């Protein structure tokens, strides 16, 4: 039959078609064909988004190295931010595109991972021992890359792979091929990173991988997966991390919807949707959400340091995004950006890269994470002739695992222990406490944007909240409350600049009698200042939910920590007056403390893992702000 569009005809004739993209969005019966010219941009803010009528304007290929725009560490491999400036846009029926795509096997040679299974397993062990157990974060994604050489025309091979993905893969958010003249990307990404439409910002954290052969999966095995603590906690942790991002780009933060089961040809994932209203420029939304914790880790800034330490090579486009920017019928900006995973990159000379990563958490095993990298690559590798195909779809749609009542019940049960603050619609003012209107709080961020979620909760309670990075000191006297926030690192290392600066701030606050709340790392530094010993836990409390005593009331809260303060009694004398402590009855670990005008909590009241977190904050604000502390000239006398 006649080709329905020129790029495919040009490729078939052996002619360079010029830059183009073919994109099928989830569930669509057509593909979008975008054609135009390509130019590079230095920053996300430089991505063109001209005025005009409705439709796509620019397709940006955002490499991982753009994370440097946020000041985060990365191995700079020089991969460019390329922009396809859309000059032509057509919708092509799915069946016609499949018929026009080349139906020939892709031939490759010299296929191998750049890091062997044994080497990758050793890296997993190092990250667990040197990073997670030492308090550097809750989870980290480490990648490896399968490399090969394509035999024959690389663009023809990419289009043949696209055909296989369209026929055999399912559940992909975007299935696509992009050709810029200097590179080709082809893939089936399961995950929306961020989208903006009609002012609605959405993100889509996906985590947990149920592997199967492509045949009918065993429902009992799926149920075991859905109840596996490692898989459950992994999804909760990335949910928390993307809620941090939504706290920045949506006016009232993100509302959690789900969870759902995303079913694909070789595996299934668990996922949530996050939604919130925002008014930022879509390029700012992209910048503030670089990049998904499902491909980096948390907390984000330190995850980037860990990635750079342990990978030692650039990621190119892996873990970046494709970003389609445009305008709607009313001229408002739109954005749709899938994560660049399950994607192959081909050079014009036939060099093939298929990067893939696994999420490492405290429950990880080396064998499990090695297997996960193979499973995640399976769909793209099959399309490239480097792995077994999934079974051909039959004449009727495959039965959905998510339709099994037991599966639905297991998914619904995941929300039972979570904080309703993030799951329910929140009308402004419904949680406000009397007497807080007009009072101001400053949150000092210790490199963990949990502070954004904390700001939304304190705002819901009635405070006007401002955030400040620990690197930018300034006056505190204009604020009724100062929150010394969370962050990664060893609180005993007071020579480290962040620890020294945050401890010095606490000294200033306590000496001046400024009402002070310390959270996680801030709490550890406060405890050390008060004379309590700080110790590393035998097993890290990363993404762990517990019932703990908090000043006489049992609270269910979430922890992200590897260190804790210890005390032998529920009360103690300190250089800043007597304090009351809430301790673990088994080992004396201090979960919370309070004194005259100050308080600290080791857990994260703002986390989705803290169903009692808002109540804890309300109680602490009552303690700290009902009767402002008297100004002190220095440490009080002990006794």
From TrEMBL:
Record field: catalytic activity: chorismate + L-glutamine = anthranilate + pyruvate + L-glutamate + H(+)
UniProt KW keywords: Glutamine amidotransferase, Lyase
Domain Chorismate-utilising enzyme C-terminal: 117-376
Coiled-coil residue windows: none
InterPro entries named among the record's database cross-references: ADC_synthase (IPR005801), Anth_synth_I-like (IPR019999), Chorismate_C (IPR015890), Class_I_gatase-like (IPR029062), GATASE (IPR017926), TrpG/PapA_dom (IPR006221)
Enzyme Commission number: 4.1.3.27
Gene3D superfamilies according to UniProt: 3.40.50.880, Anthranilate synthase
Bilayer-spanning residue ranges: none
Record bears the keyword Amino-acid biosynthesis: no
GO BP of this protein: L-tryptophan biosynthetic process
An MF annotation (GO) of this entry: anthranilate synthase activity
Domain Glutamine amidotransferase: 442-620
Protein name: anthranilate synthase
Organism for this UniProt entry: Micromonospora eburnea
